[in-house]
Every structure is written in C-alpha cells, then in structure tokens.
Amino acid sequence: MRAITELPSALSSKPRDFSLPNSSWGPEMMRLYERYNSQCEMETEGGEKQKGPWKRLPSYNRALKFATGGVYLSKIIQSKARLFTRNIRDPGAAFEYVLFVNSEEQKCVCIFQAGHLLEGPPGHVHGGAIATMIDTVTGTHATVLSGPVMTANLNINYRSPIPLGSTVLLESSLDKKEGRKTFISCKVTNTDGSKVHSETTALFLSINVSHLLLGG
Amino acid sequence: MRAITELPSALSSKPRDFSLPNSSWGPEMMRLYERYNSQCEMETEGGEKQKGPWKRLPSYNRALKFATGGVYLSKIIQSKARLFTRNIRDPGAAFEYVLFVNSEEQKCVCIFQAGHLLEGPPGHVHGGAIATMIDTVTGTHATVLSGPVMTANLNINYRSPIPLGSTVLLESSLDKKEGRKTFISCKVTNTDGSKVHSETTALFLSINVSHLLLGG
Questions:
Q1: What pTM was computed for the model?
Q2: Which of A5, A31, A35, A184 has the most CB atoms at less than 10 Å from its CB?
C-alpha cells in the first residue's frame, strides 16, 4: 500500500497555477483580470454556485495534463522539459498572462503583460514573443473547441509594435470547423481596444495525442 | 580624464558572443557549424586573409548595436531588457543557434538546437519558439539586405513537429525588394534536408530606428 501513497512529488504536491495574480501584475493587468474573473462562476448570497459566461483557465509549466499513465507518465515526470511560455520563474520578467474562455460565444481572451526579457526591437516586444502568445491563445482555444490539435498555419500581420512592459489584450474567435480543421482568428490590441497591434488567422489540425507520445 | 576612462562596464568589457560553440552543442550542431564556418573568411598559408562565401554573424543578448549615443545610449545600458532568444544563460536549455550569411547568393542559414525549456506539445518544440527562430533569421536577413526593418507579416506553415533536443536548419532567401518592402522565404528542415518542418513567407518594412527610440 505504501507504493500507492508515495506518489512522486510532482503529482502529490499541487503544481503552481501561473495564471493567478502575483506581485508583478500592474494595475492594468489586475483591472482586466478582475473584469473577466468577476464574470466567472460565482457564489450567490444563498451560497449556491451560479454559472458565469467566462471561465478562467489554469496554467502550469509542464505537459502534465497529457500524462495518462504508464511509461509516458513516468517519462514526462522525469523530464526536465518546461512549457516555453512558463520557463522563467522570476515574476514579471517574461510572459505574465491569463486566459478566459466563453463557451457560449466561442471566444477566448488573454490578458498579457510583456516583461523585460522579451525584447526584440529596442524597447519593444520581439515578434516571436508576440507569435508565441498568439499560438498559445489560439491553440488553447482550438483545444477547448476540438480536443487535441497541432498548429498547421499561423498568418500574422503585425500592425504596430508593443512597448516592453505594457499589458495587451488578445481576443480569439472561432471562424469555422471543417472535419479535422479548426479555423481561428486572433486580434491583439491595447487594453481599451483603440490600437491594433496585430491580426492573425490560424489553422489547427486535430491529432491523436498518442502519436506524439509514441512518435517522439 | 577619469570620467572618460571609467566607461560603464557594459561598454568597456567585451559582451559575450552567444553564437560561438559551447559545451551544450551536440555533434550535429558542431558538424554543421564547422561546415559553414570553414567557408568563412580564411587565412592562407602566406598569412593573407582570403574571403569565403559565408560570414558568421555574432549574437549578443542586448540591443547594444542600436545604441548611437546620448540619452538613448544611457537608457539602453541601464535597461534590464534582454533579447528574447538570449534571455536564458544556462547553455543548451533554450535557444542555441548561429547564423551565417552569404551575400552573393542573398541567402542566410541558421543552425538551431532546441533545448528542453522550449516545450509546446509534449516532447516537442512550441510553435511559438519555432516562429521566434523564423522571425529572428528572416528579420536578421532582411536587416542585412535592407537596413533596419520591422516584421510586417509572417505566414508560417507547420509541416511536422520538431522533437525537443534536435538540431534543425533554417534557410532564408530573398524573394524580392519593392520600395520599403523586403520579401523573404524561410524553410526549416532536419539537418540532412530530408524532412521539412515548416515553410514561411515573411514581409519586412524598412524603418527609421530613431522613431522606435523616440516613440517608446
């Protein structure tokens, strides 16, 4: 029986949820977080749970959610691999972000605060860091809509540079589903929506996760 | 006179060139590095320099090359900002890469070894990390060809996933130049070219760097 209670610490201790506020989140990041978080599942005065239109998605720094048991599980637990967007632990230094999904409207939003380690052009966010957030948001959205997927195409139009340190909004919406294909659009704007930073169309293909785990 | 000799250490000490081999580079990375490096500028037996078709580009973790003096220079030196692709110092953990340019053929190649901190799908490189390398290689190539530019469009087709830890080749070539526009194509393959990982077209717009520095 001991063998069962002595699970590896990666499983028995609760992993950190990176999408909860930390001390590095600025006023703009907090304000937008509160806006969407207040529209998530709520408790009424009578103590009952009331469903809200939005749902906050937790975010970890490992691919644990794909661990389904046996050899793959142990391979993943032992691996040093870390999710690209969560590989720097210093709060506020790189990607600070939180995703909310709205199932009814088939929309997803992400509030993203860009840290000083994401520099591309002097004083501004690297185009690759922006692409990384776009892939993350549209890929997560496609997974919510269609199950496991891989990115097949990203077509990104960069409209205006994002200053390092700023908070921006990524809004993702479903265009259509066709067989294995899920088409998503994504817009990156400043927090009041008055300035467009980029516009993207993305295509995702549904996959069988076991192929990835076996195919290595 | 002291004031002049006591330059900030960021200027007086030579910054690390990240595109030189380190102990984390695997045999495949080293083999390809040697292939292109041996075709760079060489010294003949008589001690004369002989020009080769390729040129290795150095790579730093700060935007120092844009520092042209005065208030901007001091702003950049004091800044904590680091280049996105060079923000992790642990060798081999994230992006290990080196770029070579061939002016005559208007081509650029990048040898890229993907570390364990770049995970997206379990065991494979994040689509955003691939996009980051594509933006880096095509953007650097466009800068060599056209001077300072900003990314205007990246259209990336992902053909097959890249296993974490592997070394891949990025090949960038000029399609055309039209006024302020530079059109570049980029292919990512395995090291013998038998497997295509992604194909990209990219558009860059020539800019005046001072706008970025002033505009913040």
A1: 0.89
A2: A184
Does A97 reside within a domain?
yes
Number of domains in chain B: 1
Question: Looking at chain B, which residue has its C-alpha nearest residue A73?
Answer: B122
**N-to-C CA span, chain A:** 33
User: Does B84 fall in a domain?
Assistant: yes
Q: Which residue among A117, A123, A150 places its CB closest to the CB of B84? A: A117
Q: Which two tokens stand for residue B5?
A: 């000799």
Residues 6+ apart with CB under 8 A from B151: A127, A158, B135, B138, B139, B202, B203, B204
Amino acid (one-letter) located at B137? V
As annotated, the active-site residues of A are: 135
Q: Which domain holds residue B131?
A: 27-42+49-213
ipTM confidence? 0.88
Indicate the SS3 state at residue A4.
helix
Q: Does residue A2 lie in a domain region?
A: no
- As given in the structure block, the two tokens for residue B102 are 């061939």
Among A121, A126, A151, whose Cβ lies nearest the Cβ of B212? Answer: A121
B149 close to B207: Cβ distance less than 8 angstroms: yes
Contact yes or no for A119/B82 (Cβ under 8 A): yes
B106 in a structural domain: yes
**CATH number of the structural domain spanning residue B111:** 3.10.129.10
* Tokens coding B13: 């000490």
Closest-CA residue of B relative to A148 is: B121
First to last CA, chain B: 34
> Three-state SS for B61?
coil
Please list the rounded mean pLDDT of every run of 10 residues in chain A (216 residues).
Answer: 42 77 97 96 78 92 60 64 93 97 95 96 95 98 96 98 96 98 98 97 90 58
Separation of alpha carbons A36 and A27, rounded Å: 15
- Residue B89: phi and psi, rounded to 5, are -85, -20
Residues of B with Cβ-Cβ distance to A128 under 8 angstroms: 84-85, 128-129, 131-136
- Gap between the Cα atoms of B117 and A84, Å rounded: 6
